[in-house]
């Protein structure tokens, strides 16, 4: 028995040693396989870059500063002292109202897949922003393949765009509109004009959706109408400025002129506050334009520097124009010139070279000076704070000139001609005439769409809560009659 057990023990020992050796040699391969599987799983869920995410949050705060306090103070200083608080209220409450509506249904209708004109309800009440399956926040595409930001940061950024766009309209009918009428109009216009235009211009499936040439047509067909056409609008020339300016002009016509307009002095009560507001707008606009790159990259830097130089060029041009017309330049003119340059460079900010930015700003200074003087007289409307003269003229000019100075032959970056390979259009393939025509069509669609929606919305408001305060209330001032407060005492 011992003779049998001894060889058996030896054999089992050898077998165990061999098994242990095999296990030790196989372990690295098994570990590598597990590591590869984990890496593949991680690669399937992109991790947003923290720098890009931080830049988007900073940009969102900058745009918030543009509206409250920037735009509020800019507009507030331009009205008479008895209407100062009413303008501050209309800007701040309009902005706040739109933010709430944005997160209820606005973001979903603007930035989810629907049709060429409007999105769907996939993000109603922001559902799906938190991805339960992945245990993290959903991602949003940028303009680079494989680069993402948290969708919640993109939604917040775009919320401020919607808010300030609606607040811009306030300046056209300042000093005479009912507070309740203003808010009801904003709800209607935001829903039926801002959201469709934003979807038509900015919604697309993202660069990674263009995985192969076979799906290009399918993916493009899911984008907004003006995106499909190839319209370039970096930060809102059509969506924000032209859209709001047309709504403001329609309102100026439909609400009517201020009591005493053309006979009584309606000079700004505080150009100091207007200057402070303009300065805040300029600083905040860096978030507005450079943030629209959605990444902290070269295009953000290009938009950043264009926002500096175009604005500066417009200030100089406006002052030169005033000096030629009246013999002296004014503080109001310098502040207005700054806004004109900011407006005009908005659609072009990341789409044109620095030389193009300077030229656009310089032309905008002269063009918008004409807009608030010559064009205003031709139209005959009491656009109280020159919303159309600056934002309409500047927005149209900027949108059209984007088609010119986007050309690589004029120092522009061009555009992505093939999203499958993310290659840019070559100078030989770029047609200035063709791109300007695309830009012109986008401008025309925006003008007509906003005008029609505005007419209907103002009419609905007039038939329900009313558009305008009484003549007695208007003469006393909206601060007291609408809000029971006064901006100044003593």
UniProtKB/TrEMBL annotation:
GO terms for molecular function: ammonium channel activity. InterPro entries: Ammonium/urea_transptr, Ammonium_transpt, Ammonium_transpt_CS, NH4_transpt_AmtB-like_dom. GO terms for cellular component: plasma membrane. SUPFAM superfamilies: Ammonium transporter. Gene3D superfamilies: Ammonium transporter AmtB like domains. Residues 1-23 form the signal peptide. It is a multi-pass membrane protein. NCBIfam families: amt. This is Ammonium transporter. It comes from Limnohabitans radicicola.
